[in-house]
Amino acid sequence: MRYFPLHGHYETSLSALQLKKCYDIAPSRVKQYLQAEIDFVLKKISRKDVVLDLGCGYGRLIPYLSKKAKYIHGIDSSVPVLILAKEFLKNTQHHFLQHMDAVKLSFSANTMDVVLCLQNGISAFSSDQRALIKEAVRVTKPGGIAIFSTYSEKFWEHRLKWAEHQFKAGLVGELDHEKCKNGVIMCKDGVSASAINAKKFLELTRWLRGIKVIVKEVDDSCLFFIIRKSK
Q1: How far is the C-alpha of 155 from the C-alpha of 23, rounded, in Å?
Q2: Which helix or strand (DSSP H or E) is residue 11 part of?
Q3: In whole angstroms, what is the distance from residue 107 CA to residue 146 CA?
Q4: In whole angstroms, what is the distance from residue 69 CA to residue 41 CA?
């Protein structure tokens, strides 16, 4: 899920079953947002496509993707969540899971039709954002797309509500409401969750050549950045 971004926090407090619980307890409006994100992405995928899911977690997206794509590669930096993903996906075909850093992909250049970095991964991976984008574009085939998503500013109150649900479930620390602003959710233990806006994303991609970036908002909740790599 990558909701709270500090790598150590993800490897411990939000690891494996706790990570899955973050989604299970999501309020109805958040579940609508999650479905809207999936529905939008599925429209961009065809049966011939090989898809790379960056930060696949316990495999939440892969059953949906496997019904549309030819094959899915799921990578994640956390071994515990990949172990859970193996069990979660035991009846799902056409996928392969690997332990890998999203900014140091072992895939060759120009091998993926679609690269996905969803659920605010660009902020929540705690990686160099420019390096993350560069790697995603590197492995994307000419004519293919890399899709990044984050939260719309219109979804702010629902993000806060979701974070409160996670606190009450013992998954994250208590929110520091005085410091929760400008798209950043802050907990009293110092853990924070930010989101990137369109201006910042376009600044990060301006130096790349041979690409076209489209910004699309969906459901008043999802903000997508779609990078099309030139043929």
Answers
A1: 16
A2: helix 7-11
A3: 15
A4: 11
pLDDT (tens digit, 9 = 90+) per residue, 182-228?
999 999 998 889 999 999 999 999 999 999 999 999 999 999 999 99
Picking from 60, 30, 25, 26, the residue whose alpha carbon sits closest to that of residue 219 is: 30
Alpha carbon 78 to its chain centroid, in Å, reads 14
The pTM (predicted TM-score) of the whole model is 0.92
Yes or no: say if 46 and 143 are a contact pair by the CB < 8 Å rule: no
Query: Tokens 């990078």 map to which residue?
Result: 227
Domain boundaries, the chain: 7-153+196-229
User: Would you state the structure tokens that stand for residue 150, as one six-digit string?
Assistant: 């984050």
Choices 3.40.50.150, 3.50.50.60, 3.40.1180.10, 3.40.50.1380: CATH for 7-153+196-229: 3.40.50.150
Question: How large is the angle between the packed helices 198-205 and 129-139, nearest 10 degrees?
Answer: 60
Q: Which two tokens stand for residue 8?
A: 């150590």
Q: Tokens 């316990």 — which residue?
A: 58
